[in-house]
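Need a sequence for this fold. Nothing fancy.
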């Protein structure tokens, strides 16, 4: 045991000797800064934006100011010494292969930027299913496969435009791009990242102008090395404005990102900003004026004030076991389109259906289909789930047998009986995706149609 420990110490000393600056630099940071990356110059070349993705200063717009650069850091991280790490920097909005089974789908990784990508994914699905044609009903799943490269770019453009325009209260939007020149000279208490300091801001008061501009520069969001997710996030904050964001937040949340498992993860306020255009930190409807003791709060807790195009469902096994699962309000549970961002055990996925009447005709909820995409490279096809909430029969695609279920009492949890024989792993007994769906359709029976449950 002592020999192994000595070997480790020797290896560590060798690493310090090779990189003495790393040790010195770490002592200058705040406690959480150990989770932040080293300066950009020591990161892989992917973190350097290719010249082809940097716009010319002659394009117009306004250069980033010193004050805005500081405020961006504070509203994101809570301070000016944090910078986006490698996982965030390499994230962009990259599609799967055009005209394939997942042609509509973005590629994501298990990192903090995934939540942002999956909200954009939900809006992409909304565009492809419901905005490309007239009528209230969407297309079939096949229409999501028949998507070429130009359709992918149009869908991404529409998704980014909708988000920014919503954040700007449907009156204006700001798009941030990177130039070849530095716009500011950072002061001593600001950590340089060789990226933010080169931002150029383009503000529009007409949504169609926003769409055209983003489409003309869509490569700045979708190409490898573009820092596309960060650019979109900066655009979102500038569209909302820092002052309005501070008004959105309450005493429970002061900034939009938090450190989780060694990475920067999105807080609920950022998810709500992406979904609703307003960075409310909570998932309940309206505002809470009084605390648990009945006394008025000095600053009310901010919830969701209106329905959004894309909904939100939340389930966490850990929170459930601790009886701390937040109750999502109807504003998020019942969106305008049958598309939901699902936060499942801290990981984001998308659940969607092609039939918009599912949200307006209660008879449609007796038996219906939803589709599930989690963004991971391991998912090769869209999962199709059959969901029933009333006494009925339906045939499973996985075999010839008929599955029968009866819901006489929504609190009886009839689905527990079919899972009781699966001892051991609680994920096998009660798959997290199914538990998430039941936060919207209580007591629903769910058939995966031959696919093994996953999230």
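Here you go.
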């Amino acid at each position: 045991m002592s020999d192994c420990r000595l070997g480790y110490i020797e290896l560590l000393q060798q690493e310090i000797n090779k990189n003495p600056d790393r040790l010195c630099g770490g002592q200058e940071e705040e406690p959480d800064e150990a989770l932040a990356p080293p300066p950009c110059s020591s990161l892989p070349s992917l973190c350097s934006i290719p010249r082809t993705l940097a716009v010319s200063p002659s394009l117009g717009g306004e250069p980033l100011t010193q004050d805005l650069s500081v405020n961006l850091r504070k509203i994101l991280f809570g301070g000016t010494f944090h910078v986006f790490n490698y996982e965030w920097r390499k994230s962009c909005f990259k599609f799967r292969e055009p005209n394939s089974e997942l042609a509509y789908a973005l590629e994501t990784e298990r990192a903090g930027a995934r939540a942002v990508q999956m909200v954009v994914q939900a809006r992409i699905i909304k565009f492809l299913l419901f905005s490309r044609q007239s009528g209230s009903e969407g297309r079939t799943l096949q229409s999501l496969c028949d998507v070429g490269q130009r359709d992918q770019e149009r869908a991404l453009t529409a998704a980014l435009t909708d988000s920014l325009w919503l954040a700007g209260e449907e009156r204006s939007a700001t798009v941030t791009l990177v130039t070849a020149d530095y716009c500011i000279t950072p002061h001593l208490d600001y950590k340089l990242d060789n990226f933010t300091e080169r931002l150029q801001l383009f503000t529009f008061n007409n949504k169609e102008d926003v769409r055209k501009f983003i489409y003309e520069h869509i490569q700045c969001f979708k190409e490898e090395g573009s820092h596309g997710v960060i650019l979109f996030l900066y655009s979102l904050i500038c569209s909302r404005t820092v002052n309005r964001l501070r008004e959105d937040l309450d005493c429970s949340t002061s900034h939009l990102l938090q450190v989780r498992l060694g990475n920067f993860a999105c807080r609920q306020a950022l998810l709500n900003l992406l979904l609703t255009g307003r960075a409310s930190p909570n998932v309940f409807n309206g505002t809470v004026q009084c605390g648990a003791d009945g006394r008025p709060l000095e600053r009310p807790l901010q919830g969701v004030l209106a329905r959004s195009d894309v909904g939100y469902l939340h389930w966490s096994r850990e929170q459930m076991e601790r009886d701390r699962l937040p109750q999502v309000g109807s504003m998020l549970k019942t969106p305008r389109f049958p598309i939901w961002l699902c936060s499942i055990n801290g990981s984001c996925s998308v659940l969607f259906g092609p039939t918009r009447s599912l949200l307006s005709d209660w008879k449609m909820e007796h038996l219906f289909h939803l589709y599930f995409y989690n963004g991971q490279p391991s998912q090769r096809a869209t999962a199709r789930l059959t969901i029933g909430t009333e006494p009925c029969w339906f045939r499973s695609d996985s075999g010839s047998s008929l599955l029968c279920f009866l819901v006489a009492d929504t609190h009886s949890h009839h689905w527990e009986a079919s899972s009781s024989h699966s001892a051991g792993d609680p994920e096998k007994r009660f798959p997290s995706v199914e538990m998430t769906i039941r936060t919207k359709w209580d007591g629903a029976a769910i058939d995966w149609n031959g696919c093994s449950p996953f999230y």
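For context: The two ends are 39 Å apart (CA to CA).
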